[in-house]
Amino acid sequence: MKAGANKTKTPRNRYSTRFFLKQAFTSIWRNGVMSAASVAVLMSCLVVLGAFVLLVANLNANLDNIAKLNVIMVFCEYDLTEEETKDVEGQIKKLPNIDTCKHITKEESLQKMKEESKNPGVYDDMTGENNPLCESFEVTYADDDETKVFDLEAKLKKIEGVRDINSVYQTAKTIDNFKNGIMLVFTWFLVILFVVSIFVIINTIKQSVFARRHEITVMRYVGATNTFITMPFVFEGVIIGACASVIAYIIEMLLYNYVGKTALGSVSFISIIGEKAVALPLLCGFIVVGILTGIIGSSASLRKYLKS
User: Fold this and answer.
1) How far apart are CA 202 and CA 224, in angstroms?
2) 76 - beta bridge partners?
3) Least CB-packed of 11, 94, 161, 203 within 10 Å?
């Protein structure tokens, strides 16, 4: 016989995913109230996170669209004569950074209001001398550098006969400042929610660990590896995170669909990113964040029992 033929092979450690899942679901069932609380808190956090991300994405998309509209509307005084209006137009065209200057008569402005109104009949008595509007100019600029745009706006305001201007660039800057403000507030709010979510998950899994503390001690005594002891609780955290992610995704998409089609459906100047474009990235993001939060919470709750 060959030497070593009688030697027995050392069995390899085989971890059963089915066993770990069974242990995880059993633990979740035993601690139903705390498990539900963990799912609810994490789900709320993800819904707020999703709303924040979608809001910022839509704001950026609208800011990009507004930035492309390099238009400044110049409104003249109401009592300007035809000659004075032509003089204003000439002065505008002489300014630097001017691309085009289109004269819009008050009759054209009134006609546009009629076309955009749901009840155009109310404007029938405003024709001729009863027209309350003023002559205006649609000015486009060539260079959208902030300094040059502000300089052009200042020069337009100083032209004699100009009553007021309306710059789309200013609107874009206002929206951008608003976006930066809400980003700061939401970021702090999200940090607090994530801390609360992890804390609740830690306490949920701690209850499971405490209930099985004697079993864990015996397993360590007979040589069970840390991986074997830890995996059921990690699976528990993953299940909690995954459940919260799916529920949060469903709620988020329902809310997004409602806001997009109902609340903002009649506002023509606001564009909403299509539901299909955000669905998959949002779902993937929710699952990643939810599962990672569950793993962090479950791992943190086991430190005490895994110390040598």
Assistant:
1) 23
2) 162
3) 11
Q: How far apart are CA 276 and CA 295, in angstroms?
A: 29
N- to C-terminal Cα distance for the chain? Answer: 45
What would the pLDDT profile of 84-106 be if each residue is shown by its tens digit? 999 999 999 999 888 889 999 98
Report DSSP state, residue 258: H
- Asked whether the beta carbons of 242 and 25 are under 8 A apart, the reply is no
Amino acid symbol at 165: I
DSSP 259: I
pLDDT digits (tens, 9 = 90+) for 209-245: 676 667 677 777 777 777 777 788 888 888 888 999 9
H/E element, 76: strand 71-76
d(C-alpha 134, C-alpha 123), whole Å: 15
Residue 14, amino acid: R
Tell if the pTM clears 0.85, that is, is over it. Answer: no
Phi, psi of 72 (to 5 degrees): -125, 120
State which amino acid sits at residue 265: G
Three-state SS string over 130-145 comes to HCCCCCEEEEEECCCC
Helix axes 226-258, 168-211, angle to 10 degrees: 140
